[in-house]
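seq as requested:
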Amino acid sequence: MNLYIRPIPNNLVMDGIAAKEVLQVKGPQDCAERWQENPPKAITFDSVSKNCTGYFSLIRGTKKGRSTSESFLLTESNVQTCPPNVMEDLQKEIGSRFR
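struct tokens:
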């Protein structure tokens, strides 16, 4: 299974309930690897503090982020190429909680 770390564009960050926080990681890849066995649906990484926050269950949507923060949708797939449309997949993830 491949784990793709897909950046959310336009300086948007996750809005939801953060379940875990990992301090002092090198970057988003390092953060995702910490949760390799049970990855969150999304992460937000702050490049100054090096904090990485995981969102495991509730993602309400996105909001405008600080210039130092960046969010990523984590996608597990058997396909060898990364799925192309991250915003479409994020909409599906947000919509899935209403089913």
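The chain has a mean pLDDT of 85.
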